[in-house]
Amino acid sequence: MAPSWDDLKVFLAVARQGSLSAAGTSLAIDPATVGRRVARLEAGLGAALFLKSPHGYALTEAGERLVPHAEEAEQAMACAEDAVRGQGDRLSGAVRIGAPDGCASFLLPRVVAEIVAEHPALEVQVVALPRIFNLNRREADMAIGVSMPAVGRLTVQKIVDYRLLMAASRRYLAGVPPIRGLADLRGHRLIGYIPEMIFDKELDYLDRLGVERPQLASNSSAVQYQMARAGAGLVVAHDFALAGDTAMAPVLEGAFELKRYFYLIRHADDARVRRLSRFAELLVAGMRREMAHARQALTQMAGSGNAEGGNKTKEFEEETSTK
């Protein structure tokens, strides 16, 4: 008897998660049921698919051979669901996006709000974690990253560039001497990442500031930003977070800035799923639109004289205005 899709779905979850409990959580079923489904599949195929140990479930050779066939079935089911749901241009069903917490906190909310307003039957889940997502384990349908992945059957699309700028609350800046150069950072409390918890080399910028460890730290850029907003010190912040925030002001403009990129990362097989591809198009367009608005807002802030601690360089003004 051919294995059922229900059993193959459970098999893939265990293969990706490495345990019955984690697989059960991802499928919203209890671990005992996961174990029974695996046992039923193994009995039907006449082969052990996993090696069980106190450390979890590891694939046997037979299990390794089954994975690509189970993934083909997964894609076929996704395409079938896509065909049934795909009526006109309206999107429906659930889409899960993994994103760094700064992007998820300050940029994606507006983008997602616009998408679901246009597609009210769509369920969008934004998973904000300060780490890299593993799409091969299907932790999300797609992910936004700050660097290009080196391994995996993935497709990568550059979305947009952004900048990391030094910033502080206006209340903090009102009580300290002007900050015009990197040398002026001495004596100021810096807020940044916990060094041993930096998950991507693109976020490792402390050496540029001549700092080994920040005095206030978090693995979350959103938490760092809120610390600075509360007047705790200086922070390296996303330009799109600063845009329109009248409580904060950039400092060291023209003397310190880091250019970074957001990438959309998808599993290669998902290119055949029209619903996901269409959502990806809307996501990319929305992020680019929001970044354009953020740059315009930052330019207006600088032009009105709201920025503290020095003026923009001509080069940066021209580059910002053309993006």
UniProtKB/TrEMBL annotation:
Region feature (Disordered): 301-323
Gene Ontology molecular functions: DNA-binding transcription factor activity; sequence-specific DNA binding
Domain of life: Bacteria
GO terms classed as biological process: DNA-templated transcription
PROSITE patterns: HTH_LYSR
Annotated HTH lysR-type domain residues: 3-60
Keyword set, alphabetical order: DNA-binding, Transcription, Transcription regulation
Compositional bias ranges of the Basic and acidic residues kind: 311-323
Pfam family name, one: LysR_substrate
InterPro entries: LysR-type_TF_proteobact-type, LysR_HTH_N, LysR_subst-bd, WH-like_DNA-bd_sf, WH_DNA-bd_sf
Family the UniProt entry places it in: Belongs to the LysR transcriptional regulatory family.
Name assigned to this protein: Transcriptional regulator, LysR family
Species for this entry: Tropicimonas isoalkanivorans
